[in-house]
Amino acid sequence: MAGTPDAILNVWDAGREPGVGADHVEHISARHIPDADWHDLLPDLGIGPAERPRFAAAQRTYALRWLAVLWKQRIARAEEFDTQLRRVRMLQHDDWSA
To answer: Out of 16, 60, 83, 84, which residue is the most buried by the measure of CB atoms under 10 Å away?
Structure first.
């Protein structure tokens, strides 16, 4: 936090940085929310057409991060790991920038 107010992230301030919105979309606890719902919310998160390529890149990065987190528990949490692996693969081939 280092004493700077910008370090405290708020979903409604996500437009300042597309990665913040991507962090919320790709959070492992948000997997139950359909992508179509998130896609509809992108303008409310400040993610317009110009920011979508950066958002998609950040989204892929966060999805990979969650895959790495689950890697250590890939046997005990096999279903979650497999779901996240499919998610990462899908995001590598999908393009929300359209």
So the answer is: 84
- Alpha-carbon distance of 69 to 26, in angstroms, equals 13
Closest CA to 10 of 1, 26, 21: 21
Q: Report d(CA 68, CA 75) in Å as an integer.
A: 13
First vs last C-alpha separation in the chain: 35
Reported as a pLDDT band with limits 50, 70 and 90, residue 21 is: confident
Cβ neighbors of 96 (< 8 A, separation 6 or more) are 39, 42, 52, 55, 56, 59
